[in-house]
């Protein structure tokens, strides 16, 4: 025990260092590349792409110039008491100690956003516990032949003991030590023959090789590990196979939406069974999301393959292609209808466009042409009113905003849309979704025939409402049942009696056809020309 403890204390702690990519300042494009090694100075580079390339090259230079991993090094992550070494054995079990094992390696661990890269000198088992770890180098196996030969030589010089049982030699203190090495047979005179050497190993009968122990395969799907003890076994195997199929699909050169829809459908079914087996609410929510993903992928496949959802008729290539995008577009329009700070259709239309410019983070950029392209008789006055009531913040004056050009846009902000720790904001879509929704609204509001007819803000608001309130084949309302006149008039910020005139304008500009108006409902269908701008009700 004392010898083992002494050997452990002499092991050197594994090396570790980190290369980071950080922004220089808020709102700036340049980045700083820094390394935790004391001899490396920080660099400031013009963009994140250039900085990421420089950071990776800097890391590779360290790996090429640095020494190889040491076979007797102590795990760097264990020395820092990371969560890997003390982690729960199951969802409801107490933490179990981690056991290191395998060869010592240099592992490179990075975050998924590509903001830092960390090199660790650790055992291969610790490296495998990190999902993003890549092995850069492996230490050679320690040479064990010299100690074994020394023990054999010591055994030959020890006088032989009894022929039966283990041999012991006595040290000066009288303690018995087991004699490691071959047993010597006695001669006829009873004396041991120390110069007799056993037959070489090559002449000894070979031992049958021990069967290699195969570790049970541990599946992974959707950033979740499939427990090996999960029952039934068929469910465990299905989850493991699905994880492999999803990873194989990501390596495809061309997408196959029909295959993706089937995978999501299988995932939804398997996750529901997993949730029932473990009573995990998170798995049940993942199953619902998988069902939605399957429906979206199947609908996209129908559109791209030239089939209508019902199985006949031409497909429609829409500007917004997914049902999630259609729902987000309706959510923005509903939010503006409920929180518009000023009355009138002109103010309502301007608030819609500004909301889509700032929806994700509460801030955005605007130029004068964005305002001049809208049917607003006095955009300066409207912007000034939004600033005075506190709904809008602008960097500079209203005149500077109207005069700004694309090369020097004006920074704007909407405080009610700015997320914080207590309020994430009214919308759930991300940075990539926001410009798609904003581009869609600009296409609808600035549609060619609406511009040529010089339609006012109220008619373009009605065009937005109709584009988000149709069935898949373009009929107004769910299943073609029509849209309520009162709701349409409220959205357009006009009196109900003025709505019929707006409907006539859209019919004249080839937006609507087969129109029928009752006391309460507007029925009809969008023309084939504007169907690509629609967001169907699904």
Q: If you had to describe this structure to a student in words, what would you say it looks like?
A:
The chain is of the alpha+beta class and 538 residues long. The protein has three domains: 2-138, no CATH class; 225-304, no CATH class; 323-533, no CATH class. The protein has 18 helices and 18 strands. The protein has helices at 2-9, 48-65, 76-79, 124-128, 145-157, 233-250, 257-278, 281-304, 323-339, 345-358, 368-372, 379-388, 398-403, 433-445, 448-452, 457-467, 485-492, 499-508, and strands spanning 16-23, 31-35, 43-45, 86-88, 95-97, 104-110, 116-123, 134-138, 168-170, 176-178, 220-221, 224-225, 363-366, 393-394, 410-413, 483-484, 512-517, 521-526. Strands 3-2-1-7-6-8 form a six-stranded antiparallel beta sheet. A three-stranded antiparallel beta sheet has the order 13-15-14. Strands 16-18-17 form a three-stranded antiparallel beta sheet. β2 (31-35) and β3 form a beta hairpin. The longest helix is centred in the middle third of the chain and has 24 residues, at 281-304. The model is unreliable at 1-9, 145-202 and 310-314 (pLDDT under 50). Residues 185-218 are annotated as: Disordered.
Compute the CA-based radius of gyration.
36 Å
Largest sheet: spatial strand order: 3-2-1-7-6-8
Mean pLDDT: 79
Q: Per the principal axes of the C-alpha atoms, what is the gross shape?
A: globular
Report low-confidence residues grouped into runs of 5 or more: 1-9, 145-202, 310-314
Largest beta-sheet details: 6 strands, antiparallel
Count of separate structural domains: 3
Q: DSSP helix count?
A: 18
Measured as a percent range, the helix fraction is 25-40%
Instruction: State the total count of DSSP E strands.
Output: 18
User: Given the helix and strand composition, which structural class is it?
Assistant: alpha+beta
Q: How much of the residues is beta strand, in percent? A: 5-15%
* End-to-end C-alpha gap: 71 Å
């Amino acid at each position: 025990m004392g010898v083992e403890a002494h050997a452990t204390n002499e092991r050197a702690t594994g090396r570790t260092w980190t290369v980071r990519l950080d922004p220089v300042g808020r709102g700036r494009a340049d980045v700083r590349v820094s390394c935790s090694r004391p001899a490396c100075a920080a660099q400031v580079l013009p963009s994140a792409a250039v900085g990421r390339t420089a950071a990776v090259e800097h890391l590779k230079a360290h790996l090429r110039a640095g020494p190889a991993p040491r076979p007797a090094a102590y795990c760097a992550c264990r020395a820092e008491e990371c969560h890997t070494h003390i982690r729960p054995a199951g969802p409801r079990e107490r933490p179990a100690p981690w056991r290191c094992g395998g060869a010592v390696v240099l592992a490179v661990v990075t975050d998924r956003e590509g903001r830092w890269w960390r090199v660790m000198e650790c055992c291969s088992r610790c490296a495998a516990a990190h999902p993003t770890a890549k092995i850069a180098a492996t230490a050679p196996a320690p040479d064990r032949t010299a100690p074994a030969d020394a023990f054999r030589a010591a055994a030959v010089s020890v006088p032989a003991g009894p022929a039966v049982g283990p041999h012991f030699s006595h040290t000066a203190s009288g303690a018995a030590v087991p004699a490691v090495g071959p047993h010597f047979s006695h001669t006829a005179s009873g004396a041991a023959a120390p110069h007799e050497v056993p037959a070489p190993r090559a002449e000894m009968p070979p031992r049958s090789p021990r069967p290699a122990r195969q570790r049970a395969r541990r599946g992974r799907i959707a950033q979740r590990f499939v427990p090996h003890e999960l029952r039934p076994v068929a469910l465990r195997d299905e989850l493991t196979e699905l994880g492999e199929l999803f990873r194989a699909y990501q390596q495809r050169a061309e997408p196959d939406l029909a295959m993706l829809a089937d995978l999501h459908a299988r995932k939804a079914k398997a996750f529901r069974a997993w949730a029932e087996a473990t009573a995990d609410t998170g798995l049940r929510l993942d199953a619902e999301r998988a069902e939605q993903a399957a429906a979206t992928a199947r609908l996209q496949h129908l559109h791209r393959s030239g089939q209508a959802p019902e199985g006949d008729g031409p497909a429609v290539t829409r500007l917004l292609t997914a049902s999630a995008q259609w729902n987000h577009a309706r959510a923005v329009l509903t939010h503006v209808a409920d929180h518009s700070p000023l009355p009138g259709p002109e103010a309502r239309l301007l608030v819609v466009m500004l909301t889509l410019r700032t929806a994700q983070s509460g801030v955005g950029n605007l130029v004068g042409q964005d305002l001049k392209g809208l049917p607003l008789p006095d955009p300066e006055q409207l912007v000034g009113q939004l600033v005075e009531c506190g709904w809008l913040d602008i960097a500079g004056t209203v005149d500077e905003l109207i005069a700004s050009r694309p090369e020097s846009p004006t920074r704007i902000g909407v405080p009610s849309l700015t997320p914080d720790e207590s309020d994430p904001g009214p919308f759930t879509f991300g940075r990539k979704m926001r410009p798609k929704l904003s581009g869609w609204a600009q296409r609808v509001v600035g549609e060619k025939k609406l511009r040529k007819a010089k339609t006012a803000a109220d008619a373009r608001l009605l065009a937005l409402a109709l584009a988000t309130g149709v069935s898949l084949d373009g009929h107004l309302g769910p299943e073609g049942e029509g849209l309520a006149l009162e709701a349409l008039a409220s959205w357009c910020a006009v009196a109900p009696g003025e709505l019929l005139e707006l409907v006539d304008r859209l019919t004249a500009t080839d937006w609507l056809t087969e129109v029928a108006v009752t006391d309460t409902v507007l029925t009809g269908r969008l023309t084939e020309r504007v169907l690509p701008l629609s967001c169907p009700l699904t």
